[in-house]
Batch of 2 targets.
Target 1
Amino acid sequence: MQDTIAAVATGPVRAAVGILRLSGPSAIAAASAVFQAERGRPLDAREDRKLTLGWLLDRTGRRVDQVLATVSRAPHSYTGEDTAEFFCHGSPAVLALGLESLFAQGVRQAGPGEFTRRAFLNGKLDLMQAEAVADLVDAETEEAARCAGGQLSGALSRRVQGVYDALVDLSAHFHAVLDYPDEDIDPFGAQELAQGLARAEADLAALLATYRRGKLLVGGIPCAIVGRPNAGKSSLLNALLGYERAIVTDIPGTTRDTVEEKCTLGGHLLRLIDTAGIRESGDTVERLGVERSRRALEEAELALVLCDGRNVCPEDLELLRLAREKAPQVLLVWTKADLWAAPPALPAGEEAAAVAVSSKTGSGLEDLERAIAGCFPTDAAQERGEMLTNARQAEAAGRALELVRSARAGLEAGITPDALLIDVEGAMEALGELTGRNLREDVTARIFSRFCVGK
C-alpha cells in the first residue's frame, strides 16, 4: 500500500454535492497541488479535519469549482493513512476533471472497497465491521441500517471476541501448566475444561441462531402470495407495490409464472412472490407455473394464503394446511373485502391469523402491514447489531461450534486434555476468520469486491 488512491465517493449522477476522496502516502501533497486556498496557507499546511474554502484546479492549473477541502493525517483517519477530501458541486463533469487532475499528480483510481480494505489492513476496522460498512450502504430498511450500525460500532465483534478470549484462557492455562511445571500455577483440571467448553458451546450456539434472522434482515424475507386462481394474488401484489406490476384479469390462470418484487412492509424488507393459482390443470404451461408456486411456498419464510372472502372451499383449506407445513409464518388474507360484509367462519381446528383486505379500495392494507410486523418482532441482538448477517460469518461460527462440541464429546469419552486442545485451537482459528485475524487473501478480495468504488 505504498501508492495513493482516489475516487469519486458519491454516485455518478448530478447532485448538490460530490465528494473526491484520496488515501495514501502522497494524498495530502497531491490534494494540495490541485487546490488553491481562498486565503492563507496551502492545504498541506492546514490542521487536520478543518474545512478550507478554495478552488479545485484542473491539470492545467485553471479553476474548475469552488470547493471545501479537508485533510486527516495518519493514523487518525478512516483508512489509517493520510487522507484528503474535496466537497465539490455535484456535477459529474467537475468530478471527472478533479480526478484527472489528481491522476496527473501520480494518484491512481481506487478499486471497489479499497478505502475500507485499507482501513481493515491498517487495523482501523476488523472484518465484520468492514462488512457492516457494505451492509450499511446497501440497507433498505431502518432495522437493517440500525443492525449494520451496531455491527460497525463493534457490537458483533465484541460478542465474538468474548468467546475467543475464553478459549484462549483455556488453552493458555493448559500450556502454562505444561511448559512451567515448577511454577506456582493452579493445576489444569478436567472440570475447568468442561465448564469452559460448555459456556463456549452455549455462546456459539446462541450466536449461530442469530443468522436466520440476520440473513432475512439483509436479503429480505421471502414472502409467497398463494391461493386458488382469481383469489386476488396479483391484485394484492400491485396494491402493496403501489403500481401495476402483474397483469390482472378475470380469466383464471392469467399468472403462469412467479413474479418477484421487493417491498418494505411493517418495517421489514419483503421479497414478494406472486404465484400461479394452485389448482389441478390439464394445461402444460399452467402446470409448470403451479409447480413453481409450490416451490416458492417451500422456500418462503412467510406465506400469505389468499381466499376470496365471499366463500371458502375445501381447496382453500387444503392450501392453508400446505402453507402451515411448508412456511414458518402463515397469514390468511381474506380478499375482495369490498364485496362482502363478513368473512366465512373456518371449521374448528382450521383457525388462522387472518386479515381482510380489498386491493381495489386499499382497505385492510394497514392491518396486513401490522400483522406482518408481528410475525417478525425485533429482538435485542438485532437492536444491538449482534447478529450474523452473511453466509461467511455463519460458516465460520458453525465450524467453531462443531469443534467445541467435538472437544466436549472427547472429554466425556476420556480423551486427554492435550488432544482436546487441538479442537479448541481449531475453534479459535475459525473465530479468527470471523474478525479477519486469520484469513486467506482470496477470501478478503472476494469480500471487498462487492463494495462500491469510493468506499
Target 2
Amino acid sequence: MHFRCPALALPSLIFASTITLGQTTQALPPLAIEHVTLLPMTVDCPVLHDQTVTLRDGRIVGIEASTGAKVGAGVRRIDGAGKYLMPSLTDAHVHLENDRVLRMFLKNPNIPTGTIRTEDIFLPYVASGVLQVFDLSATSETVGQRDEVESGRVVGPHIALAAMIDGPDPFWPVGMTRVAATPSDGRQAVRDASAEGYEIIKVYSKLDLQTFTAIVDEARRLHMPVVGHIPQRGRGITEKFFQPGFGMVAHAEEFAQQTNVPAEADIPRYVEMAKRNGAWLTGTLSLDERLLEETSHPESLKARSELRFLTPLVYAMVTEHNPYVAQANANYVGYLRTIVAFNRKLVQAFAAAGIPVLAGTDTPVPGMVAGFALHDELEAMARYGLSNRQVLEGATRLPAEWLGVAGDRGVIALGKRADLLLLDADPIADVANTRKITAVVVGGRFLSRSDLDREMQALDDRYARIRNGGAAETH
C-alpha cells in the first residue's frame, strides 16, 4: 500500500479518532512537537526538516513547516530542534508471558497465579519504543492482555494475536499450541481461532503437507494472514509449502534447517520460492547470534545488563539452567556458526530480490529481552547487508502492511495513530540511533526519557528484591 508524502504546509486539520485510545483512559491534551526532523517512513516521502507535528485524541492531526505553523492555545509544546521523529517500532516475533504460559514454558505447574504482572511485561517494550508486537503463540490470557492495553488500563504495545497450530506430538504443550492431525482438524482449528478473536495463524514444524494446505486455505478464506515454520524438515518437499496464503516465514534459520547441513547453494532457489509465492521473511538474526554467543561463551550472559529486566523466574532459567548452554558442545556450537553464516547470505539475497524482511526477535528465548532485543535485531539486519532505510521499514511500515493495519499505524501521516519515537540522533545515518530515545509517544501520550527511566528503575528494583529472596507485591 502506498502513502502520499505529507505536504510541507498543511493546515492543522483535526481528525476524529475512530478507534478507542489505547494507552490512557483520560483525555490527553493536544501536543505539538516543533522544529523536528521528520522521518515519515512512507513509501515515497523524503526526510522533512523543521516540521511541527500536532497530535490530538491519539492521532496525528497536523504536519506542517514550523515557519508557518500556528500552534493554538491549550496545546502542549515540545521543542524538537535537533531531534528526529519516526514511527514507533514493531517486533514481529515475540511470545508474551502470562502465568499459564510461564508454567508451560518453564515446565513448572506450581507457579502461582499473579506471578506475571502485565504492566511489567510491557514496560521494557514501551521504554524501548516498541509499540506493536506479533505474539506468535498467543493464548486466551493474551487476548485479555491485549484488551487491557486497548482499553487503556495498561500502557503497552498493540498486540497482534497468532494462534499456533502444530501436528501430532507437538513441540510445545497444548495450550500454547493447537494440534491438527488431519486436514479437517486444521480447518476447524483455524475457524476456532478466528471465532476467538485471533488475527494470525502460525503454522509449526510437525504439520504434514495435506493438513498445512488445509490450514492455509481456510485461513485465506477467513482473511487471516499465515506465518510460521516450514514443516517436514529434511524431507525434500520445501517448495510444496510455498502456496497461496503462506505469507511469511518466521525465521531465516528455517531455510537453513531444510537440509541436514545448511545449503548455501540452495539460497537462490529459496529466494525464488518466496518471491513467486509473495512470502515475506522475519529474520530473527540476533537470536541465532545470541545463542552462538551464550553457548560458546556462557560467561557472556553475566555481561548483559538487560537480563535484569527478565521476569525473575525466567532470569533464573536463563542464567542458571539455560537449556542451550546445557546442551552445548563443539558440534552444536559449530552448527550454530553455520546457521549464522547461512542467515547472513540468505537475508542479503532476500533483500536484493526485493522481498521484505521484518524485524523480529523470538523474545523471550534465553538471552533475548523484551524491547532491548529489537534494537539488537535492527543492528544485525544492517550488518547483514540491508540498507538502514530497509531496516527501519522492516520495523515500522512493512509490519503494518503485512498485518493489514497500515491505515491505522506504521507511518507518520495525517490521521494515523500517534505512536512515535523522538530520537536524539538520525537512525537513517545509523540504525543504532534508535536506542537514543528522548521520548516515546504512546497513543498521543508523551513519555519522556526521565519518565521511562524512572519506571524502568522501579521495575529493576522490584525484580532485584524478588531475585534476592524477597516477596513480590500482591494486588
